[in-house]
Amino acid sequence: MNPEDATISTSMIKPAIGIQNDWYDVFSRGDGVRKAWISMKSGCQSSYGELHSTDGLNSVSASDGFEVSNISERSITVRHCTSEASATFRAPTNSFEQIHNQSVSHPKTRGGLGVSVCSGNRMLLWETSNGSVRRTLDGHICDVTTCRFFPSGLVVLSGGLDMQLKIWSAETGQCATTLKGHVGGITDAAVVERGRNVVSVSRDATARLWDCGQSVCLSVVAKCDSVINSCALQATDNSVYLGQPDQSVSEREVATDRQLLILACESGVLEGFGLRAKEKIFQAVCTDAVNTCAFLTPMQVICGTHNGQIYIFDIRNISSALHHWYEKRGVIYNITPVCGGFLTCTGDGSCIFRDCTNLNQNHVIDFAGSDCDPIYKVASSGSRLFTACRDSIIRKYVLPKNMV
Q: What global pTM score does this model have?
């Protein structure tokens, strides 16, 4: 048994169905015998089977305890009969191999443009329709670790291991301002409302609030006990206590009064802070380093850990998780809420969607394509989805109608 499995009951392990990464290409080649492998992992048990066809995608069958329940354009649904787990696998419509040539992460999209970074310290703006590169955003000294658009779609925020935040014009590719103050590499950042203020988190264990107009740090919002890996912001209503701000709140703070900041920490805790008050509101303890966090609703937060576990908490009662399970897909690198559920990017190359209304069902939508290379981040834009993978490829998918 994997040592990680010993720390969690079998009932909390979600079965994971996998498929040969190029299954769509295999069955699209025409007539003749076509085969692709299929697998199921649950606890310490694994099952392997085969998909096969002599008529392309018109008729695909399965063996060894698997069955095919539906086939449509670039999509196939497979069920494991014993565990009753199932997955709908979707193939990409495009694979953008020309944007980056090294491991790629942090894709974000808005208004027909995408921005992403790779391990070669290249941050690029590109067209989401065809992957054509429009701009190179060059200015960070070390690797860029995070990037995102401001709500206008005309401005980009980035942060890097050089301990700097930079704000860029998406139209010209020029850096408008640089924010300095961290003493460790920046790991993540968030935009407050329309963007007068931004928040950053760092390997120096602090979260900082910045004034973009004057390029200054307004305050240190949080000082944690370890590296902060990720952050997320959410406006809450008056029913949530966010602390008592003192009299020194800067007039340059805009729309911070009802903002809750959550922090994913390397020490294995998820912490929440009132952004205006700079006061810790809660702390939830997890089993391993927390890599990613997000808001599912204004009252529910989700986080994923390095050992593959996912937690959902209600911020009004943080003492115990609403849901807690083990994905058995490797490291949880990123969780992104979308379409009434969330996408999870994992170390085994999976990008799966779970519907929040059916968390107890063992069905996922799996955006397949990676050959076991980790998926680091994902971005959605309308009916399109973009994944960033260690193999340097940004893959584009069409979301099924029930996710749009």
A: 0.95
